[in-house]
Structures
1.
Amino acid sequence: MKIEISRGKVHNEFSQKVEEISGQNLFACYQCGNCTAGCPVSFAMDLGPHQVIRYSLLGLEKEVLECNTFWMCASCLQCTSRCPKGLDIARIMEAIRLVILRKKERLDHLEVAELSEEFLERVPQIALISGFRKFTS
Amino acid sequence: MGKVGVVMCPCELEGMTLFDPEVLVEGLKGRKDVLPLIHHQPVCSESGVEAIRAFMEGNGLDRVVMACSKPELFGPTFKKALRQWGLNPSLSGVLGIRPTAERKGSDDLQEALHVIEEGIDEIKRRKPAKGEKTPFVKRAMVIGGGITGITASIDLGNGGYEVLLVDRLPSIGGRMLQLSETFPTLDCAQCTLTPKTVETGQHPHIRLITYAEIESVSGEVGNFLVKIRRKAAYVDWEKCTGCGLCQEKCPSKVPSEFERGIGPGKAIYTLSPQAVPNKPVINPEVCRYFTEGKCRVCEKVCLTDAIDYAQEDTFIEERVGAIIVATGFDLYRKEDIGEYGYGDVPDVIDGLAFERLNSASGPTAGEIRRPSDGHIPKEVVFIQCVASRDPERYMPYCSRACCMYTAKHARLYKHKVHDGHAYIFYMDIRSMGKGYEEFIQQGMEEGILYLRGRVSRLFRDNGHVVVWGADTLTGKKVEIAADMVVLATAMIPSRGAKELAEKLHIGTDEYGFLTEAQCKLYPVESGVEGIYLAGCAQGPKDIADTVAQGNAAASKVQALFAQH
Amino acid sequence: MEFLYFPGCTLYTKAKNLDEAGRECAKALGFELKELSNWTCCGAAFPLAKDNIMALAPPARILAKAKEEGSTLTTLCSVCFNVIKRTNRLIQEDEEKREKINTFIEMDYQGDVRVLHYLEILKREVGFESIRGAVKRDLQGLKVAPFYGCMLLRPAEEMEFDDKEAPTIFEEFLESIACEPVDFPYKIECCGAFQSVGAPEVATECAYAILISALRNGAEAVTTTCPLCQFNLDSKQKEIRERHNDFPGIPIIYFTQLLGLALGLPVEKLEFHRNDVDPRPLLEKKGLL
């Protein structure tokens, strides 16, 4: 339950990378929770999107990368469209996905081999393509 | 005509280096009609003022232009000084030449020179008042009859000065008249306010000009000429006794603006049974006679023949020496908030509507019943910071009073509906007044559930108002199927405040709030000498603060009058 | 009236019912859909990473080709519409990215193609009044809930499609073909999108919430503009029923199929057999077949 905070940890390399890829200023978030409140998939998330922003700002890379929030994000932009601070939260989620997917070792979130033939038969290309765009490197 | 003196202030305000006075003077060197003063002290310093006096006197100048960075700050003081030296302030100009984007950029310099040259030409055109100086009128006008304007008027009246109190509505009292109880004491608002409105109405030095708007203003401190439009009331107030029969018998029931749309009003109405003045007006937009050509019930029942459908707007001209602007606030319209259903979700009301719901004089006689079906709501959600603190979509500022009045609403609700539950969505609690924090804490202890987060969306489903909020303390999304939702919407300047400010030549900020000369030391002065600001017209605040500002503005006017 | 038409991958296969009906309706309404030549996939997701220029190349190339062949490009699929419209806007506004993209695709495109969704063509170019006049089959009494989803509406300042919180174009369309639009709060929510691949049970829950809300508000059918919404709302009803035994099922019909029905097109051209929940029993009950 305890975290130690210091200059080097807050806003560390990880949070800066998230800011760079997303183009968003994590310090601008005032933690109102509007993103979590309007998120259609927050019911399935370990952390609300606002918490992911907070954890990222504090430099808690491990906790962030282990949560499922950004994998659950459907890029529906409801959070972005209502953020009172004008943060594009969907871009922040994408940035965190990319922090993982751009690592040297392949860390794909989705394996084609694991999808059943029956499912592949049914599912439209559009779902597969966008899914692979979001979940694989 | 003699030369025009030009004074350049070399001040470095807020770390911003202004133009080098020598360079500015160099730019004016072609003009034979000016005499520049270069002095290396800021004009607001003691030696600066003295230098200007010596310069004017020594060169026999009576016309002067001063160029400085903040004319709204130093202008009034400068003109006062001129008057003390026996010079005519109307032959002087105070110009702002603050560099804009790039410091000391050459465009900026050209722009500043242009401003100065235009100022010189303007001052040269001015004619000195002939003969004796115009008399200084020791009589004030207060625009806005809310608690701020009332407070200022009573102070001035008690000080022995004559006051004209102008209000747009038929009677005085303003927003406070709509309130049920006030924090942190839970005093009845009407019981506190009514003695004040009555005192105002009966005060020998206060003249009420209600149902009226400012048409135009000219002149200057000591001698403003104000033209006022008195709107047609369609009732002869001289004849009317205020018996209320017309209102009782009027057959048009319309949603009343005063009741915030949750209760009916009549086409002929007074704002409250204790209205001051207690005289009705007809709203021609909803009156059956005006819209359909027949009815005339009010005319038939009136015992004194006071109804006059042919009445027209009239105009009054008054001279006053000082003006206090206290035009108050409106609430951000819930009809403009998309994610909360654009005002179309039943049983979603704003804070003022809740005040009416809770008022003994309101449409439910103070019983908490939701507007859609009159049921007593058992799950009530209050939402703070609606359209406030939202730089991306709405108003970026904090509306200051909402934390407190929302706590008050929730507590009053709990006091009346014992088995009901009150939830408050908040971002931060700002309870900085005396007794305020204690008030909030008591509300929490009484069982109000505070949820820390915004509400993203409201919609109607399954007979409820569904609330999608967040509780950031647990990190979770919160869904509540509420019976009623109360929005603490942002305070915004009242309709027409910006237009009025233009008529008065006083400044407004980007939201339309009137700007004070300086936020710390000149909080009730406008940029124009003799015009003062008070109350929510200047920015959101609660009653205690607004009354303090009303007092302050009145005391400024009394000090001004006492000097003449 | 002629518009360039970008079908997109799914409309050639799984969403033939959206595509065919759209083409047939265009003929019936007297405007031409000229299929863009040699088109490629749009990428199916607008890249949200600021540094992902690569993903902008396919939609930029589509736009640049469209510029060579016409001036207005239309799509039926909401996802394609979103990707292409956002890319177009970016090319218009961001000079640096525009140059990079043009270098990459070896074309010179300035962002001057007009991108409209088919619904916008119906509203702005054809006019709902003309559609009303062209109606041959009376759909009166058919209660349809229009599902907008995300891609048409957001981000609102880029899509410039409709009010993001309370859009009405779909309702206006339904009224023009005499359907009774059913307003329901979930019409602007997300169907689960690509989570049908990543977290299928999450997408199922999203679909359930939408459909149960439509049903509760009296809908007999839901209509969509997007093959991804259609998949999540239509094809996943089996999964929904496995998780929620109170769910009765509801047909999901593409808006072009409804339009075709109203315009009196032969039913076989509307390919209702491709819809997973067969809408034909409902349409038959309503006397529409």
Note: Chain B has four domains: 4-125, 139-231+313-328+494-562, 245-301, 334-491.
2.
Amino acid sequence: MKRELPIAITFICAFILTLQYFIPHRSFEIMYEISNIWIQIIGVFAMILGIISLIMLHWEKIKHKKENWGFSIVTLASLVGMSLVGLIASENSPVFEWLYNFILAPISATMFALLAFFIASAAYRAFRARTVVATILLLAAVIVMLGRVPIGSLISFGIFPKMAEILVNYPNVAAKRAIFMGVGLGAAATALKVMLGIERSYMGSD
Amino acid sequence: MLDGIKNLPIVFLLSIIIIFPIQAIAGEGQTKSKLPNLTIEKVMDTPNDHGRSITIIWKKPSFDSSFAIPTGYKILRADSLRSNFDSVEFVPIGKSKSFDIQNIEDGKTYYYRIGYANTEIISNIAGPVQAKGNWFHTGKTTTFVVTILFCALTLGILIFARRGGELYIRPISGINAIDDAIGRATEMGKPILFVPGLGAASDVATIAAFTILEHIAKITAEYKTRIIVPCYAPETMIVAQEVVRASYLDAGRPDLYNDKEIFFITQEQFPYTAAVNGIMLRDRPAANFFLGKFYAESLMLAETGFEAGAIQIAGTDEAIQIPFFVAACDYTLMGEELYAASAYLSKDPMKLATLKAEDWGKAGVIIFLIIGVVVASVFGSDFFIRLLDVNVM
């Protein structure tokens, strides 16, 4: 029963939501809206558990003075500080917006900016012509890169931009579409496995 | 002469009073005569909607550019032919020749007319018409048929598998390497890092990641290897905790399970990335698994793991991120291979059957594409294009 009931609930919910995709009637739209509200409610309760997990983890680090425990103080202070400002002054308050725009956003932007360097180092490794396939990859990358900058057009009399266009629009799109088709069918097969109770690992133990 | 000059203002005023209204009347007449008539071609319940909407289609008039074009159309409505038609909507003049009138009462009869704004020119009466919700979206017929066919195919292969039919699955090197990676971490006495991505617990990629986590956790329980699972979404954390706990229980080592190793970090993309990178550089896991939904952080995670010297196995259904994982990881499960992992690892005939159905589905799509390309290229027919046209709006 501990297994059968969740499988039955999963099947019924998944079946109704699958039907909802094909039935635009208002009654099914309302069901979809209600299910979205339920997801949000479950998400809120899960968030409480998540925050408890975060606090416990960092509290343990501070308590036992584990390596880099100072960062845990910063984490907990940030969590409490932002929460208090949000709760007391509301999320639209200037203080909350200032904290978000001038602390969190620049930190995130800095991390994102590092991506350029990661791309450079990964490209350096990926484009080493050790095998035939890697050499083809290198050649394709060089053509596409040169095709996208003015000097590429200048040195090749406009050939590189055209070749880059062909590489990006045909072999690249063909490979992507093959992946998309596989992903689409794979997702449908996985959804069926979950609906029919064949895939149950996400439920944990009995 | 002087009398004539004295009377000049009076003559001027009289001319204003008499001539201007005559011109205005004549002008109005000209505008009226130049504006073409309006004709409603069709008024109907809006197709493929949830109800409360009526679509009105009119014949697009062609205007003479030498006269002022009206600013828009007014849509007039009445409950019955005897009632007055009241203006309910204004549609700006443009390319449009149809309009969906929203917030209509379902099941109630209406009549419509259309006219130019600020003029008396109005169209014929169209109706009666009623709004109603539709029980099937005709634009999704192709999707519906394909879904039914795929479900039937899957059920057919499931029945075949249940009767003991043998199903062959090609080797997937990325999945075969999972056990080796865990073995390496055990030998080195270092932990394993499992990153379930940025997807919600309900995402298919995350569900597929849980099935691999189940397998990994069973082995780590047997080998007594530490497993770290930093989570982006709290609900993912809860499911991951349950999956790992169940695996430790199945392996007969519930005492080794530590729920503090499966924890929530944040739901901000780059702070999460920074935190996971920090774990990789501080704890130096010997094996990193990046399985699930990944976006811009994929390369940052994989490159940091590479720098930390870990063996890395990645898998995602995000086509754009696959090249990054291929460049920086030892093995990559591309798209559907991630979904295939659970069947491949368990060798359960029922799971293998769904995998087989997927393969047959792909074969069907390929055959369909080849036939479609030949028919379109050789015979110039767009039959297959129209057949596969999906209108989801």
Note: Chain B has twelve helices and 13 strands.
3.
Amino acid sequence: MTPTTGATTGTTAPGTAHSLASAARPHSLGLLRRIGFLPVLLVALVAGMAATDPQFYGPINILNILRNTAFLTIVACGQAMVIIAGGFDLSVGAVVALASVVSAKVMAVTLAAFPGSEGLATAAGVAAGLGAGLAVGLVNGLCVARLKVSGFIVTLGTMSATTGVALMITSGIPVYGMPQGFVKEFGRAQFLGLPTAVYAALLVLALMVFIQRRTLFGRYVYAIGGNADAAVVSGVSINRHLVGTYMLSGLLAALTGLLLTAQVGSGQASLGGDRMMLQSIAAAVIGGVSLRGGIGRVEIVALSALFLTILGNALNLLHIDSRLQPVFLGAIMVAAVALDELGRRRNARV
Amino acid sequence: MSDIDAAPSPSGLPALRRLAVQAALPIALVLLLLAFAAVDMRVLSLANLLNIAQQTSYLALFAMAQTVVILTRGFDLALGPTVSMVSVGAALAMASGVAAGYDPGLVLLMGLAAGFGLGIACGTFNGAVIALLGVSPFVATLGSYNIAIGIATTLSGGRPVQGVPDLFSHLFYGGSIAGIPAAILIAALVGIVLHLVLTRTVYGRALYVIGTNPRAAAVAGLPVKAILVATYILCSTLAALGALMMTARTGSGEPNLGGSLSLQAIAAAVVGGTSLAGGRGGVGTAVVGALFVTILSNGMNLTRIDGYVQMVVLGAIVIAGVVLDRIRLEQRG
């Protein structure tokens, strides 16, 4: 779908297949290729829905779409970085749950120990939640980098372990007793008509764009995913940066867990889960992140998170049986990647 | 001792060391059983051993299904949903046959046709998308994962499908020969046949070549695309067989039967020593891995270890298994 989005400018790592392909690209398709198919699909979807159902552009529905997009975008940004470096993070859904449970528990305990000190409780809870995410990311990264085990298997293992720990902490029961301020003034609050989560997602997205383009870490991640051997020869310390991508992914998943917890008002081990994990990978892949590593931009991933969320919303509004909806998601994902692959082959031939 | 050798049995390796490398996990299995038995003697009772064997036969079938595609550097995330879809489809076909008053044999045939038909359809989709369109196995099977879940829940309306005939349940679950339950017999038979296919046929050897070096396989003139499609069909067909056996056990078509089976089966195969990098593994690794996982959870259940702790242990075991495999490989090289 977006062979172009990665290749429009010099933002892909030098020496990847794309920069070669873009040189040989025919100019007739240039404009469409430069924008990519995703924005076109997105505009078509929005226009189509706006024409058929006035509920679609109602303020409540739009807020709902934006909020859900924000959660998915934050997780997908971390996932995208891991995939660009040539890995996978299957544990993000479990980390969302763990961060939710850990932060809620710490807040409740702190508040019980120091009644009235809501600020302290909130700070401790947020730190504990983010710390839990970083810890899982550290374990993932160390196993992948030091033990040279594939990211798929490592994060498959930590996914199971993390879910187990989250359930152990709660015994499967939601954790209540967090400061009211955290829920009312943060989770369910709105500034200028938009939920807090949306601002958090925009902030994360801006930071990630900066990291990808303007920091050594971002450039090295492209280099490692594009050609790990070449990166080593060029003097990039691969292990440190690999661990970095997994920790970033864990941190962002934990942040989503905190935002969801603040919105729901309790710590729950059922938040996130397999669904969030699969959706984050789908968002990254439809957003043009190559599973072979080395290619992908977070702003396109955010666009694709918006697309996926609106698609789910549209299917609901059109009263399409919720049981049938996964069929659409699956078909669109395969089609998007197949188109991308076919486009790449055509480019290679020219 | 060259790694160029595509076969899983490198001819240069000294026989004794090879034995030690291969026997590591079986030895660990026996130790594990004895450790659990020390806590609770019931672990070693004949009834429990038979129970373990029966539980293992399902997971072993699914691990074998994953193994054939993992050999080619792929995997099938859609295996679990395929199981759900086949279970629901077969149960619906048989229930409608029973309702129409058909002959029991015909009803059974309808169920098998629907079940295997759905399995083959799913495998064909996966194989075609992966081999012909060049989409990575992860995305392709993640796509069919969603599609199969959608079909399974839509067909069943999200509820169990009742009306599975007794003949079917007897054949795939209740029946036994010489006291050995049907599930074990079927799994053993499939295991033997698949082992022969993997080690004694050109197709089987081709899987190892493709997994070890796809480019060399293509250069050597192997029809790589056709073989890949066939392998994904084989994988889904094995999954469909396992689904029919599980449907016979529960006595109804269950839209949630597959659950987290995809990842469980991959974990079992990998713990047994199948390499996700392709080209290494076989029926033996799948069965040993499935036995290991089953004995572990059976033992933890009998010694009353908390279910949530079990998840943590299983996760750690999966990672440890792969790390050990890595170390073994380095020693060999």
Note: The CA atoms of residues 25 and 272 of chain B lie 7 Å apart.
4.
Amino acid sequence: MTMTTVDPAQLARESHKHVGDVARDALTMTWRNLLRLTRNPELMVFSTVQPIIFVLMFRYVFGGAITIPDYPYVDFLMAGVWVQSVTFGALNTGVGLAEDLQAGLIERFRSLPMARSAVLVGRTTADLVRNFFVVAVMTTVGFMVGFNYHTSALALLGALGIVLLFSYALSWLSALLGLMAPNAETAQAAFFPIVAVLVFASAAFVPVQTMPGWLQAFAKNQPVTAVIDAVRALTLGGPTAGKVVSALVWIAGIVAVFAPLSIRRYRKVA
Amino acid sequence: MAVEVEDLVKHFGDVHALDGVSFGVEAGTVLGLLGPNGAGKTTAVRILTSIITPDTGTASVLGIDVAEYPESVRLRIGLAGQYAAVDEVLTGRENLRLVGRLCHLPRADAESRAEELLGRFGLSDAGDRSLKTYSGGMRRRLDLAAALVHRPPVLFLDEPTTGLDPGSRLDLWAIIGELVDEGTTVLLTTQYLEEADRLADQIVVIDHGLVIAEGTATELKGRIGSTHIEVVVAAGAADQARAALSTVGPETAPDAPNAIAIQVADGSKAVLDAVRALDAAAIEVEGLAVREPTLDDVFLELTGHAADDIQTAGD
């Protein structure tokens, strides 16, 4: 059936996606996801209160028991709490996508003349914006309970930038799980053990040297530790360049693996 | 043809959702795609709306091949789904604005179009409330409004009234009727025979991924052509009445314990025969009705199972 009532030139024009439209669709979806967030005050409160509680808990509950050579524990701690929060927070990406799938919204989006990439890009970008605020709140609270950096303000900003880049990379892992899970609860259940192992078997809260040898082998060679080492180097000082490169390589690697997998999965679902 | 599919085949593993389906919808008319759950209706709609691709076969909308030019098709169609695909957390107005923006309307146009649609669908007062406060009928109206934001000439409605109360269903039917009057081409899937009867110019009946009948509602009913007489008698007299009526026609499944239904060829002549037979046996009749064939009968005849069975077996 090739009867075409529409001018072929017009069809060709319509098939061509303008970069501006693609970017605008992604922005629209980001706006939508952030708007949803403001309508869910519980989520807003929990996603900021929880990190604050972690800062306070580790600072005051464990701070007395754990001593780190050369630095006050809180200076050592902040890198761990930042990374821990954004790692667990990445869960939101997958849960949000699983909810949209379940509600049939992805189906509607796919029938609209919008860029297909906008659903995933809009989701991960909105989560990046959310993480920006979470990290900002934690940093403020950190300063209030005695955190101090031993490098420069620029290095501190670099550290926070790496934390946010890492959160963005994890959003793509989370997105894949969210698109594979039959519902939001399953997405959550699948994501939690992965990140729990990554966060707790890492340098987040205690030096890796205190762990048994077999665990050290894992803890030293995984992305959360790599990112925390870089963030610590940028806030506490010491050799920095290699650690930052290692963190960035992990981040780029996670995006390189999970973004294409998520996009491929997204094309298949709905 | 505004919508046309030819030899569509789509298998999901062992499930033959579509096994070679062809049909067309003429511009400005309504086609009812009728069938039980799992018949392949939704799969056909998802192929036509560019959401999935068929294994083989072609689909076109307004003469545009869906697989070749999905972007062009999406510019010209609206889809309202069975599950009311609207964002629960946002307000009605925000939902419509979102769709408007995603259809690349300028901000001001998206805003005024949202306002206009809220008014048209009786949602002006609820426009700034979260969808959590909407009733099922309101949600479905908003879903339909969302499908109309970019004024598509072709509309796909996938079971638009499934699960709605009768009042909301009538509201939605009236709205769909208006859209058709304005010239919109509609492909509607439904498992409600009454809905197809009421809205569709042409009906295509599909079951197990195959077209098993097509025609107008009248044509389909004519093909079955069985008229029934239903007699209601006092509770104790049913057996006696049954015996008296056995000379008029073969008995079929009755609707109630003290009702007797018989199948007849000529309704008006059979009524007289039935009255005479009942009178001769001195049976007091509480009610008597002639029932012309409905699409339910058509369905039972064509698929071997009643439409009601299908509805309860579904979901």
Note: Residues 226-292 of chain B form a domain with the Alpha-Beta Plaits fold (CATH 3.30.70.980).
